[in-house]
């Protein structure tokens, strides 16, 4: 595989890692919405343990991806997490999309597109 192909593949893997992290945030929010008998049960319950395990796996995947993805592209790819969390929150937590939230996501996606069109993300280059 060429360097550019590896960058494209690992940019996609990076986005999967961001999605995993977003799912773990939703699990933590679900856990926070419950009432527990003690502080110990609040922090040592299956949802919290699985969520932090997912965060850890996501971190390892992201660190590995940085071997192939330019460091300047990392924060741009990472910002997709805001969109993932908003969509997952809408689906699983029944959170509403406010006008400010939608405007924020549009600005974020425009920023990602500008970064990509500027030639920093290889899968948008021709």
Notes on the protein architecture:
This protein is an all-alpha fold. It has one domain. Helix content is 73%, strand content 0%. It contains 6 helices and no strands. It has helices spanning 3-32, 39-43, 46-65, 74-78, 80-92, 99-117. α1 (3-32) packs across α5. The longest helix has 30 residues, at 3-32. The chain starts with a helix and ends in a 9-residue tail after the last helix. The mean pLDDT is 91.
Instruction: Round the Cα radius of gyration to an integer and report it.
Output: 17 Å
| Strand-pairing-aware structural class | mainly alpha
> Could you name the ranges where pLDDT drops below 50 across 5 or more consecutive residues?
none
* Whole-number count of domains: 1
How would you sum up the global shape?
flat
Number of strands: 0
* Largest sheet properties: none
Order of helices and strands: HHHHHH
Straight-line distance between termini: 18 Å
- Which whole number gives the mean pLDDT? 91
Give the strand content.
under 5%
Task: Note the total helix count.
Answer: 6
Helix content: over 70%
